[in-house]
Amino acid sequence: MKTDIDIHNHAHFSFDLWLTLIKSHPEFKAKRVELFSSFFKIRKSIDEVARMVKYYDDLCNNMNELTGGNIDTFEMYLLILGSLEVDIKEVNKETLNDFYTRSEELFLEYKPIIIFKNLHDFFKEIKDQGKTINILSNTGFIKGKTMRKFLMEENLDQYIDFHIYSDETNCSKPNPLIFQEVNKKINHKKLEKDQILHIGDNPIADYKGAKDFGFNAHLIKH
User: How confident is the model at residue 27 (pLDDT cuts 50, 70, 90)?
Assistant: First the structure.
């Protein structure tokens, strides 16, 4: 991915993750559907399970962006299970935690692909100028704690000053409260809002959300 991001006229850089820096491994989603189906012993076809997983993934993402809230990963699991005629009264939190652990292992085996060209070099250039970086990402099936593990494995965490994920703040972009979290974290630098640049691919959640809050914004176009 070619970038024309202006790093010279900003002091802090906030990055979205999905479809900005990374994209899913091409095999991961199908593998996750297979795991979901077998783990919960679902008596529907794989195609039907895949359809419902995608439906609720998209629905919850859209709801989070619309309301500014955050639908929990386990709530997403239960919605999918209910739609597939699984008795959710037979599911407990320990089971959900066990499945999440298994899905996290799968995620780290079929790791996302970095799509931002020369990302290490770009982050290093920012840091070499004495500037700071954060990750600001809405989450769904993949929690912030898992994204941290991935970024550590990719040796990208060395450049990142802090992370903000919607499952940890209980609010999602474009909610101004999540951009306020960025502002709070860098308050010690006493920066003006227009010295902060948020970079993302979503015209509403990233670009408009950041601009409405007062940050500068850069829209990644695919």
Answer: very high
On the question of pLDDT at 2 being above 90, the answer is: no
- Listed in sequence order, the residues at least 6 apart from 182 whose beta carbon sits closer than 8 Å to its beta carbon are 14, 134, 136, 164, 196, 198, 215
CA 164/CA 113 separation, integer angstroms: 21
Measured CA distances, 73 to 97, 126, 178, 208 (Å): 10, 33, 18, 25
Structure token pair of residue 38: 């077998």
Contacts of 146 (CB under 8 A, 6+ apart): 104, 107, 108
Q: Report angle CA 15, 106, 58 to the nearest 5 degrees.
A: 55
CA distances to 72, 175, 214 from 61, rounded to whole Å, are: 11, 13, 24
CB 160 within 8 A of CB 135: yes
The token duo for 137 is 């990402």
Strand order from edge to edge, sheet including 196-200: 162-165, 132-137, 12-15, 196-200, 216-219
- Cβ–Cβ < 8 Å for 21, 15: yes
d(Cα 151, Cα 208) in Å, to the nearest integer? 26
Q: Which residue bears the tokens 């189906």?
A: 37
Q: Residue 148: exposed, middle, or buried by beta-carbon count in 10 A (0-12, 13-18, 19+)? A: middle
For 65-92, write each residue's pLDDT tens digit: 999 999 999 999 999 999 999 999 999 9
Structure pTM? 0.96
